[in-house]
Protein 1
Amino acid sequence: MFKVENITKKYGTRTVLDDVSLTFKTGQITSLVGANGAGKSTLLSIMARFLKQDSGNVFFEERNMASFKNLEIAKRVASLRQSNSFNIRITVRETVAFGRFPHSKGRLKKADEDIIDKSLEYMAITPMQDKFIDQLSGGERQRVFIAMILAQDTDHILLDEPLNNLDMKQSASIMRNLRNIVDETKKTIIIVVHDINCASCYSEEIVALKNGKLMLQATPEEFMQEGVIKEIFDVDCKIAEVDGNKICVYHNCDKCSDEADKPVELLHSHRCSSCAEKPL
């Protein structure tokens, strides 16, 4: 279990995180949401020990994260940064195999190979395992990097905006795969996402930050309220229900607010029929 206490981080005179304290539950997906600059990625980077906080503490399994040796934490927590690349020509399988390094030190055994196979399978990339990374699309590469994190086989996984630059189909596919992993293995995934509809549909809990402050830690049902969205993102919206999931429909046209009451094609494609304004 992760617990952060009174975390503050500044860049010069700008406060990025302002005395943030919260506890993350285990065995579920928790989504970190908020506008650009809210502090989401900074908080995750501090939890992953990529970045040092100015004050406060991060606890993992009731131990201060600062007390763990690098190898020790690598066997317990797997973290994916926003930007990932390799400067060497390497295959998909070889890339995923890097996730086993904390356990194998590069000397792969059958148990390691089995975990690599399972990670490739989870992300539906087994057929491309012999391709080189530079032959893949951006979405395919992202699946490979997530598979590498899965191959690390930790109980806790931290993902910083893994859906960046992906289209809707790729994003939905990755979120479904992560959901299946948690349902099957009871791993804990903490993920930074911009799409609050993805957070609503695939998470048990949503943590919202604004201007470096913790605004809300709630279930999707509690979070997906028009007033809550307005307060956190400063945008007007309508909340619709599709297949039992709360969906936020946000647009900038006062004249067509009733359009948002028509739930289906609206998810990412709502267009105002009255004034032809595009959604935000």
Protein 2
Amino acid sequence: MKAAAYPTFTTTAFQSRLIYRNQVWASAFGKLISSFAYIAIWTAAFAGAASVDGVTLPEMITYVLMAGSMLYWNVDRLLKQVGEDVRTGDVTTYLIKPVYYPLYMLATHLGHYLFEQLVITLPVAIIIALVLGLVPPASVFHGTMFFVFWALSWLTLFTLATLCGLLAFWLMTVFALEWLLKGIMALVSGAIVPLWFMPPALAAICGYLPFAWVSYYPSAVYLGKLDVAATWTHLGIGLAWLTVLGGFASWLWAKARNRLVVQGG
């Protein structure tokens, strides 16, 4: 299939979300409540202090919105779709269609992600900005690089979720994998606790794992916690991780296709 056809999958996925309007309202309300809950926790943790370890409360509020809502998107839909395709055998149809299954999934879930960002996350961000205020980018450079890290963040998490999903070809379920990925992301991605508040030894380890490029580094770049040299260095490391993970996902899909062919005769 020509590459130009994949944007159609993105558009279709985006439009399909418009059908379930009540679900959209519920998701937006849930994200708003959870965001304010995390903000309340960090407000209490600061206990009126102007800053903690060089981080101000307004910066932490901005970090909560970015690391938790904008960057750490819900991968349940992706994992459940792969699991359902494997369970029902629908995935076999992609062996006879001119469609590369991982790219199809990428295009489809990019549509879901864009919908959630525009229709759910953006209104929540506007409400938080009006009620509490948000910190602007540390500089034009950091603001520009944030968008680069944002794209890297989405692709990294998509690839990690795809790897977990492809393991369903051997395990025949994604339920345990879903919770495993969520647990790892909650602990080491910086989505809940930034690396700058972790013990130095743990932060050093987490800072070189690919999960940190999902939530922590994009937010840290936006807030100016990385200087210009460090920003470029971590971008290079993040791209290297993405290349390795993407190559592993392609290899795993090739093995999964062979497994399907063998099992199906």
